[in-house]
Amino acid sequence: MGKRVAVMLAGCGVYDGSEIHESSAVLVHLSREGAQAEVYAPNVDQMHVVDHVKGQPTQEKRNVLVESARIARGNIKDLAKLDVKELDALIIPGGFGVAKNLSTWATQGKNCVVSKEVEAALKAFHAARKPIGLCCISPVLAAKIFPGCELTVGQDTECEKWPYAKTAETMKELGCKHVNKHVTEIHVDAKNKLVTTSAFMCNAPMHEIYDGIGKMVKEVVRLA
User: Fold this and answer.
1) Per-residue pLDDT reduced to its tens digit, 53-92
2) To which H or E segment does residue 96 belong?
3) Gene3D superfamilies from the entry (predicted)?
4) Fewer Cβ close by (within 10 Å): the C or N end of the chain?
5) How far apart are CA 68 and CA 75, in angstroms?
6) What span, in angstroms and rounded, lies between the C-alpha atoms of 20 and 11?
7) Beta bridge partners of 57
8) What CATH topology corresponds to 4-223?
9) Which burial class, exposed, middle or buried, applies to 91 when counting CB atoms under 10 A from its CB (0-12, 13-18, 19+)?
10) Torsion of CA 110, 189, 29, 153, to 10 degrees
11) Quick one: pLDDT band at residue 1, thresholds 50, 70, 90?
12) Which of 136, 149, 176, 202 is catalytic?
C-alpha cells in the first residue's frame, strides 16, 4: 500500500482559493511517488470571490469545499472529517485562499487567526510526528502555529523575481527561522518534519515551480 497523504485545499483559483497549478503539481507528484492523495477542504464560505480576469472582488458568494471539489474532480471530503490516524502526511498547496479562507493572513499578517479546523489538523499531524509539506504562501500557517520552526518562502529580499519577499520578514517576526532557497529547492525542518518550497512566491518559469513542488512531495513521502 502506498502512503496516504491528505491534501488540504482552500478553494479554486490563485486570488481567492488554492493555486490550481500548484494543487495539480502536488497531485501529479504524489501519483508518481505511488502515494494515495486524499483531498480535504473546509466547508465554509470564501472570504470573497475574485474575478480572475479583472483581478477585482465581485458580489458573488462561494463555498470553499464546493470550489475545491473542482480541482479534486469531485473526490473530496469535508476537513471536519479528517482523521490523522488514517493518514501518513499532509500537504497544503498555496494560493491566496490560504491567507483568506484558511487564515486571516491576507488582512492581518502576523496577527492573523488560523481557522480552528486547519489549526487542529496541522497540530494533529505535528503531534503524531507525521510530515507536513507546504508551498508558496502556506508556510505562514506553520509560522503562526509552530514558533521556532524553520521554513522557506523563497528569498527575503524583494525584487522583480521575488515580489512577495516581505512575507519572509513577517514570518521571522513570529519567531521562526526563514531559510533562503531558490524556486527549485526545498527546505527540510527535520525536528518539526516540515518541508517547504517557494512555488509561485517566485516569478519563475512554470516547470521550475513544478520541479520544486516535486522535490517537496518526494521528501514528504520519504519522511512518511
Assistant:
1) 999 999 999 999 999 999 999 999 999 999 999 999 999 9
2) helix 96-100
3) 3.40.50.880
4) N
5) 10
6) 9
7) 50
8) Rossmann fold (3.40.50)
9) buried
10) 40
11) confident
12) 136
Is 202 annotated as catalytic? no
State the CB neighbour count (10 A cutoff) for residue 171.
Answer: 24
**What are the tens digits of pLDDT across the range 116-174?**
999 999 999 999 999 999 999 999 999 999 999 999 999 999 999 999 999 999 999 99
**Residue type at 162?**
W
Report residue 118 as a C-alpha cell.
486547519
Q: Which three cell numbers stand for residue 111?
A: 496577527
Q: Are 156 and 202 in contact (CB under 8 A)?
A: no
> What is the DSSP code string of 183-209?
TT--EEETTTTEEEE-GGGS---HHHH
Buried b (16+ CB within 10 A) or exposed e, 20-32: bbbbebbbebbee
Which helix (H) or strand (E) segment holds residue 141: the answer is helix 139-145
d(CA 9, CA 202): 20
pTM exceeds 0.70, yes or no? yes
Give the residue carrying C-alpha cell 481557522.
115
**DSSP string across 5-52:** EEEE---SSTTTS--HHHHHHHHHHHHHTT-EEEEEE--SB-S--EET
